[in-house]
Amino acid sequence: MEKTTIKLGISSCLLGHKVRYDGGHKRDRFLTDTLGKYVEYVPVCPETDCGMGVPRETLRLVGSPDAPRLMTTRTKQDRTEQMIRWASERVRTLEHEELCGFIFKKDSPSSGMERVKVYSEKGGMSKTGVGIFARMFMEHFPLLPVEDEGRLHDPKLRENFIERIFVYKRWRELSARKKTRGDLVDYHTRHKLLILSHSQKHYRIMGKLVAEAKGTRINELYEKYENILTEALQLKTTPKKNANVLQHIMGYFKAQLSSDEKQELIEVIDYYRTENIPLIVPVTLLNHYIRKYDQPYLKAQHYLSPHPIELQLRNHV
Known about the structure:
Blueprint: E1 6-11, H1 29-34, E2 39-44, H2 46-49, E3 59-62, E4 69-72, H3 80-94, E5 102-104, E6 116-119, E7 125-129, H4 132-140, E8 146-148, H5 155-176, H6 181-196, H7 200-211, H8 218-234, H9 239-250, H10 259-273, H11 280-292, H12 296-299
Parallel strand pairs: 1-2, 1-5, 3-6, 5-8
Antiparallel strand pairs: 3-4, 6-7
Helix pairs in contact: 3-4, 5-6, 5-8, 6-7, 7-8, 9-10, 10-11
């Protein structure tokens, strides 16, 4: 796994900063103690950063879920314009941070990325809102991986998000250099199996785009590729999709493996496909054969090592 700094935006309270309305925090130990070893966080608290104090009156979204107002709960003060003015400037300054993703605070009227409570003027409530800052951030950075800390408690969503931030970091590094078709082909080649694990359709589209790269202007080519890559990685992997990739990898060893070894691999992949063992088991076995038989194409595949093994993400999916 490459050693590189990944910068993530994050709601400040998740790091243990005492910025909540009651002077408390919502420290998430996985984010601080485990993932924090591999990333550099850029903390953001929309409510304190835009000028609201600590402690402060609680806020909630009121009105239309598509364009709600940010109101104080008890005194009914409208804080919408204050938040929008600050957020408009903050998203512009965050452009310079070279973020590879953002982790929002769930349910927050400023930072919740989905299913935030929105209250109607008549007293009803629906969980269909998006926090004011979160909405503006996602509109400004539509290609960045984003999640909230609540969803990251789901092992599959956690693995997907962290895989995506590592992919995006490598993309940032590629894009920072002089753009060449050769570098894009190399990037795509190393990510082929990872893309395939998300979507056969996008795998084919991206392969065609790269194969016909000479006919496209370089900036347009990179832009198209990034858009399709983002779209592909937003589609979740499944045991069935992963099993297809694992069987594809197994095909590289037809000439080397004994019949017993082939049978063992088939059984292990099937145990994974039926969710009796985690993904780390067949991947470890395949990595053993890749090293043993020195398969250079597979050695370069990020699918087989998409994030630090110490995070143990594939132990639970």
